[in-house]
Here is the input.
Amino acid sequence: MTAPPTDAAPVTAADRTRLFRLASVLLTYPDAELLGARDELRGAAGRIEHPRLRGQAEEFLAWLTGTEPIDVQRHYVQTFDLRRRSGLYLTYYLHGDTRKRGMALLILKQRYRAHGLRLAAGELPDLLPVVLEFAATVGPGEGEAPLRQHRRGIELLRAALADLGTPYHLLLDAVTAVLPELTDADREAVAELAIDGPPVESVGLDSLGPDLLASGGLDGVGLAPYPTCPSTEAR
Here is the structure.
């Protein structure tokens, strides 16, 4: 008889896939369809065999399903759309408002296309739920490469969510637990980014308008790089 896994047991490839797929769903905007799928979500969490990862997913779901939908939706917008420091778009952490970000988005999109993953209309390839879906679909190696590439940004996001005290930090804690450990250089870079923020350049930002630029750019109005829910839902 095989003993059940313990918290110290290594995470299996199957559990990594289950976790990435579940987190990719739970990190999307909690619309009526998502909130109405509580039984399916609980079932998906229950299939994660690793006890610590399963416990984190179930604890998050207890909050999600036990909170009024309007409050969950408001919390999501306040967490991810109104705070640039906890945005879900990973290239921002690495490249900030620079032209390098556009190239990074293009490379990601080409990587997805090579594996048959098509983005929905208006969906950007660096959105964390999309990156997690790609990892779950393609698997270790090529599928998880974008997660490894943006490991520092994911750590910054995890720390920001922990500081906010939001239940969403449970999902990031679980995801980062199965990613490669941060190196000393990673930790140093994360600490610097936490203080200085991502790189910024004004070249190519004229289209944002003089009023926005005069207020300090996007950071000046405290917005995430892109909204993660429809404007009608945000209102």
